[in-house]
Amino acid sequence: MARLRLTHVGGPTLLVEIDGWRILTDPTFDAPGKRYGFGLGTSSTKVAGPAVAAEDLGDIDAVLLTHDHHADNLDDAGRELLARVPIVVTTTAGAVRLGRDALGLEPWEVARLEAAPRPPIDVVATPCRHGPPLSKPLVGDVIGFALRAAAADRVALWISGDTVLYPGVRAVADRFDVDVAVLHLGGVQFPITGPLRYTMTVDDAVSLCRALQPKVAIPVHYEGWSHFAEGRSAIASRLDREPTDVRERFRFLDLGVPTTIDG
Ligand SMILES: [Zn+2]
After folding, report:
1. How many A from CA of 196 to the centre of ligand 1?
2. Which residues are within 5 Å of ligand 1 (an ion), measured at CB?
3. Can you tell me the distance from the alpha carbon of 203 to that of 216, in angstroms, rounded to the nearest whole number?
4. List of residues 6+ apart from 111 with CB closer than 8 A
């Protein structure tokens, strides 16, 4: 397993330090208190600020952006940060919208990131469906990211992206051996669309991990906004009912604390 250090900034925002690379996922650094529209009459209020300020992060080699069109994955301060990052990888639609030389990937496409003297890293885009069946035209394109050393067999780190549990996500378990899985949870629902879910619940995470068998599973993106239905305590108490083999794979990161993941 590659040497991996993760710092959870808040929401889906994670600083990934791997093989000399410093990679940031879904940059969100706005102060709390503002309400953001997510389209179709849905909206949410940010209730927690970042645990690390953008200016305290140091140099970032690359940003992996699961989608650019929701403010809980890319906010105003996150957009400003993109300007000083040499490599940005996101969806093909998002790459066009960002209006810079961002790298757009379709699901299962691979990009090799190179920034000598660091060893190259392959990033494989993985499928996401950010809502109920047939919702894609409404909720837009989202991808996850599987990172592995060039030519390695195993995926060192997989970031699920905002997605429900559906065959596209389960296909990741069929294709890859994953060491560390970062799972976007929260079981998102909106009053206007009733019981429909837009991201995975902890039940989904447990089901996925039974198939995926990661060495470590790390929940993110479950708190800090008003639209999350399952926070840390709900996730933890649900995991308490799982057998040790499942429960012990899950690990919460303390916000703002660089954490070495040993597997
Ligand atoms: Zn989203």
Report:
1. 14
2. 70, 162
3. 17
4. 89, 103, 105, 122, 123, 125
Half-sphere exposure of 46 (CA within 13 A, CB side): 23
Q: What domains sit in the chain, N to C, each tagged with a CATH number?
A: 4-252 (3.60.15.10)
| Ligand 1 center–CA 210 separation, angstroms | 25
CA of 71 to the centre of ligand 1 (A): 8
- DSSP assignments along 94-156, one per residue: HHHHHTSSPEEE-TT-EEEE--TTSPPEEEEEEE---SSTT-HHHH---EEEEEEETT-SSEE
pLDDT in tens, 147-179: 999 879 999 999 999 999 999 999 999 999 999
Coil, strand, or helix at residue 12? coil
Q: Quick one: CA dihedral 74, 128, 198, 223, positive or negative?
A: negative
The DSSP 8-state label assigned to residue 191 in this structure reads G
Rounded-to-integer distance, Cα 33 and Cα 23, Å: 27
Condensed to tens digits (0 to 9), the pLDDT of residues 74-119 reads: 999 999 999 999 999 999 999 999 988 899 999 999 999 999 999 9
Terminal Cα distance for the chain, rounded: 7
Distance 152 CA to ligand 1 centre (A): 30
Provide the pairing of β-strand 103-105 with 155-159. Answer: unpaired
The tokens describing 26, both together, are 């879904």
